[in-house]
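Lecture notes, structural biology module. Today: joint structure prediction for complexes of two components.
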Amino acid sequence: MTALLEAVDICKSFPGVQALDGVQLRVPSGQILAVVGENGAGKSTLMKILGGVYRADRGTILLDGRPASIHSVKQAEHLGIVLIHQELNLAEHLDVAGNVFLGREPRRWGWLVDRSIYPAAAAITTRLGLDVSPRTLVGRLTVGQQQLVEIARALSLRSRLLILDEPTSSLTEKETGRLFDVLRNLRNEGLAIVYISHRLKEVNDIADRVAVLRDGRNAGELSRQEISHAAIVHLMVSRELKQFFQRAGRVSDRSMPSAGDITPVADATGSPVLHVHGLRWWPRQKEGVTFSLRRGEIVGLGGLIGAGRTELAETIFGIRRRLAGEIRMEDRLLLSRRPAQAIAAGIFLIPEDRRLQGLILSDSVKCNISLPNLDQLKTCGLVRPAPERQLAKTQSTRFNVRTPSIDQPVGLLSGGNQQKVVLAKWLSRTPKVLILDEPTRGVDVGAKSEIYDLINRFAEQGLAVLMISSDLEEILGMCDRVLVMHQGRLTGELTRQEMSEEAVMRLATGGVS
Amino acid sequence: MKKLLGITVFLALVYLALMLSHPNAFSLKTHVLLGERIGLYGILSLAAGMLIVTGGIDLSIGSLVCLSSTVFALLAVKFEWSVPEAFLASLLVAALVGLTNGLLVTKLRLQPFMVTLCGLFIFRSLARWLAGDKTVEDLANRLEVEAAFFNGTLAGVPVYLILLAFMALLASVFLHLSVHGRYFFAIGSNERAARFAGVNVDGHKIAAYMLCSMLTACYSFLALMKTSSLEPAAIGQNDELMAIAGAVLGGCTLRGGEGTVYGMIVGTMIIQILMMMNTFWAVPTELEGTMIGVILLLGVILDELLRRRERLGRQDNA
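The predicted structure, tokenised, for the full assembly:
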């Protein structure tokens, strides 16, 4: 039997990243195919290629066994492929029918003439069990209902392949259950459904088949009988040994006393410095987050995107409002309502998005480095130019920032060098606690290892480092222990001995350790 | 840098055009008049410009001119306060206005455009109500001594221009050399990055609104010295637009994070010279708006084109 859609040898690269490298995907009608993988495994890129958002660099897409070229969303929809994004794309101020038929309203002289969209929309929504009038404004529906409106739109396009990217990320359990009923019905009617999710339990519940991607390649497939949490996790993380050791060799030399004159602080004997107790920031969080950090240790914070790791860091730093819980620095209660107070207490946060949060791209390297340090570079409120230049020079040398001059706008530097400026700007003084949010995202391999070396050196100097990372190899290679979050709570802690990619992934996907 | 050079050249051209446009233009009288006008409007451009640098905007400047002049005039004439006392009171009113604007923008996260648009309606109507919508009588008599001083010259230079030079100097030091000025630019360029760097973003934004309003009060005091009359329905009409136009022509962008004190002053000079040219050429006053609008539009287009070329250049490098 020919599959409805078959993707053969799909390759796609973005500047600096090979996102997809010869991926195959076979999607037959009447089946729910789950596509899973770590962050950055290439799931979304693949789906965007099928949905006409991106074009593949190489590879063929066969539709009903015949080659098809998909070069726009409109055309993909014409061919019967509809991609529903994680963030819903609905016009909140239009009613249900208006959204279902948006862009395809029957009209004459620009006026909506045909009232038939209302009964037509009602027919589809009833089929989906969406119990609202087609004249209801979409903005007044719950997220779960809005999701069904998107699906209704897809059905009205006579779609044969429905791709859902993380459809349940903002649904309640009940809504998820209802969505699954709808999806099962659609499958039984013969639709092909591709379902992308981080939540392996859901994949377990709904998928007829699972395709696993890893580092832009196929890592394996599981049939209905083979699907289990453990089996999926195993495929998601097991890497070719060569690649793994190559990296681990570079990053894990911190456990050996190779630094010469610096004596590493013993992990277990370091005194506790930061305590976080019962910290909550989302109203729907049932339990708070509790943990502590000791001097000289590097603690990983693992989990998937949306697990709340960045939010935890921002709450500690005072960017985000805290709903409950307390933060103590060396037994002193920290009422951090503003970042300045956290900085004064010795907590530094190096944010995740260097372009939006870390740097002022149009400003020079010098101004970026001096910005958080201006309070130490002033007399009578005026910036002292000579020490400012001096600081910028020292820091960019220390962090090995490759730039023609310190007056170069940072926007012109490479990603890795920009990240080094981010580190240089915050680490000109010594914090007690350093929180790094995805410190090596979008950074090339060479700059990565330099950044690892720097982090190791900080830990050796007695800093407590909390490193948020979605890169499991990085966490395993760098950290003394790892905390794992899932949906806003800590699901477990793993010591160096217990750490493995599978163990982290199990906790990150909500499984029990 | 390129931008500053560009507007300086433009200023020179406009000045040259004025001098060549009429035989009477090259006279001391013209220059004194020009100096006075630049001295007055320059303050407003500083007010608007420094706020624009932080990414803010104030549309209520003209109405605040009206309110603070009215407060000053009523206190000085009807309640017979001394001139400095009345001035300080009007300054206080302006400071409160700025504080309110700042609090609404930062704490309630309202859009600056909307907040100050509401101010534009409120302040003028309040002033008209306070003054009974009548011209304040006897103002000229009351201010005779002070007006004589401010309208004079020192070593041939109009006092207004000297005052502006002094204020511009202070503003330059503040904006370009001080830590807080650095924070103003950082907030205007990337507010989130400034927040992560530990900058007290809300505090600085509030300060920028207060600074803008208080400079406006200074302007309205000086403008009152110049005119010695006050008609609440008309005074300060469109002043906010002149202020913003001067700042933007001088290189501030409404996106925030860009601008120099030098540019703000040069922008004001260009506009005032153009206005003066209108007088000489006997262009009907109705057309003044058209001319300023067109010049400003050209300036903005030029700025955008320059920016695009720069960005293209960057992409080639990358």
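Point to remember: The longest helix of chain A spans residues 173-188.
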